[in-house]
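Chapter summary example: a protein plus zinc ion.
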Amino acid sequence: MWFEVFSFFVGVFFSHAAFRIPFLLFPRMKSWNEQFTSHPEPVNVDGELLLRVLHMRNFYYLGLFFTFIPLIFGWLTIQYGNAPLGFGLWLSSGWLLISNISSPLAGEGPPWTKTLAMKLQLVRNEAESDKSCCQFPAPVWEVTAVRCAICRKILLNEPRPDLGRPRSDGKIKGLFLLILSGGRPLVSLNEEE
Ligand SMILES: [Zn+2]
């Protein structure tokens, strides 16, 4: 009994891991991150960051193709091998596919969106305009919000999702956290100024 339950959850875990392969692995190469400060330090809000947000979004959707691997493998495993494992693989990858295809309708989706990139662009525009927070504005994205590094004013109240930088919390722990969180911010505080 316990072995079946264990097999089922191994299947569920592997489907989630497969779905997240593109955003877990592709952006994390060192040469891809030289323009950014290292994790978990604040990131400058600039063109590179906007581009990264859009790339992360693409990697997220690329993950849907990777979900077909556990879907097919799960079906084969149900037919010819360990049924609980196959069922875990098949059920969770099927669920991931359905929920992600329908997520734009439900108003859910990846933590990296075009709207988010647009909000960041507005922060940049404002920093360069007469309405800037201080004389030398320097917007940086901290864990909980975008703040000005000089005057500390909150410029955008959005917690920072994973940005594909190599993790400071170690490869294994970082990987595990990302598989569970899907890159969503792990904190969300509503700070008020
Ligand atoms: Zn400022």
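Key point: The CA atoms of residues 60 and 164 lie 11 Å apart.
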